[in-house]
Amino acid sequence: MDCIGSVSVSLTTADWISNNTIRVGERAILKVTQKDAYGNPVSSNTVLEVDCFEFSAYVASDFRASVAVSSENVKYDCDRTNNGNGYVSWYPTRVGKFWLQIGNGATNIRGSPFPVNVVSGYKQHTQAL
């Protein structure tokens, strides 16, 4: 079963706060919205106490997202104060096409793995005089 308390892993969703095309060293951020078994957002309005499900997240180099890229460190934080939204963040260290996997190890959240295109760092802009 993919529910723990009132959170359904398979119905939980995520949306990009940053763009899914980012530069090396920029912060990639996804907002994770915990959903219940009926697809409703879990919040202090729907349950007595918001429980933050501890999702696992990692970066993979292929769509199957079966193997994590060991050099990439992904962080998951949860807002325990109000609505239980979580935030997955990652600072990519190399250029390439990656997939951000979010779930509980057995079940992905809806839409996972999320494609991420990492491009080279900032370009120097020069101003013509």
Describe how the helices and strands are arranged.
Elements: E1 3-4, E2 7-16, E3 21-23, E4 28-35, E5 56-60, E6 74-78, E7 86-90, E8 96-103, E9 114-119
Parallel strand pairs: 3-9
Antiparallel strand pairs: 1-2, 2-4, 4-7, 5-8, 6-7, 8-9
Keywords:
single chain; 129 residues; mainly beta; Immunoglobulin-like; five-stranded antiparallel beta sheet; four-stranded mixed beta sheet; 9 strands; globular
By CATH, the topology is: Immunoglobulin-like
Strand order of the largest sheet: 1-2-4-7-6
Return the string of H and E elements: EEEEEEEEE
**What would the average pLDDT be, to the nearest integer?**
80
**First-residue to last-residue Cα separation:** 65 Å
Q: Compute the number of structural domains.
A: 1
Please tell me how large the radius of gyration is: 16 Å
CATH architecture: Sandwich
The computed structural class is: mainly beta
What low-confidence regions span 5 or more consecutive residues with pLDDT below 50? Answer: 1-5
Report the principal-axis shape: globular
Count of DSSP strands:
9
Helix content: under 10%
Give the number of helices: 0
- CATH superfamily placement: Immunoglobulins
Largest sheet: 5 strands, antiparallel
Strand content: 35-45%
